[in-house]
Design goal:
mainly alpha, 170 residues
């Protein structure tokens, strides 16, 4: 069996390949999620204030927007979108995650799919991969932003899978 990731057409390289890798990673962890997970599973936390499946997906979507649109393109923040994604309520460093929206897995995937469609379009507007910008006290490149988003999603997608397994054992 041969596995390959074909670069998407219509993108400057390395972006076509990176978009394909991002989508492939998303398909991988999502394919292991139970499509019938209901709203109770999405908001369940092993301990109050800890991660939940829904919280992980919201966070993945929020960071995707932040990296691909806010940092890379300098677009303005949408306050309603931040509220829906619970950005201001989630303290990832202090490990204080609020209970997310009481919706089934399909709702979260639909939300992430809409954001991913925007992501794939926004990348077409990016400059060369070595383009640098300031992010706080760090200087980062567009190539770094893309790589960071790929590994960030893999990290939290894995957490969502672990939380699913814990939920099933309740």
């Amino acid at each position: 069996m041969k596995f390959d990731v074909e670069p998407y057409k219509g993108y400057e390289e390395p972006y076509g390949l990176l978009c394909a890798i991002l989508d492939d990673g998303t398909r991988d962890w999502r394919s292991q999620m139970d499509p019938n997970l209901g709203a109770d599973a999405m908001v369940w936390q092993p301990h109050p204030g800890m991660h939940s499946i829904g919280g992980c997906i919201l966070h993945v979507a929020a960071i995707e927007i932040r990296g691909f649109e806010r940092i890379a393109l300098g677009t303005a923040t949408d306050p309603e979108e931040r509220k829906m994604l619970m950005v201001d309520e989630t303290d990832i460093d202090g490990i204080n995650w609020p209970k997310p929206h009481h919706e089934p897995l399909s709702w979260y995937f639909d939300l992430h799919d809409r954001i991913r469609a925007r992501t794939l379009e926004s990348v077409k507007k990016w400059g060369p991969p070595t383009t640098s910008m300031k992010n706080g006290d760090r200087e980062i490149t567009l190539r770094w932003v893309f790589g960071h988003i790929i590994q960030h999603e893999a990290y939290h997608g894995g957490q969502a899978l672990l939380l699913q397994e814990l939920w099933k054992r309740l």
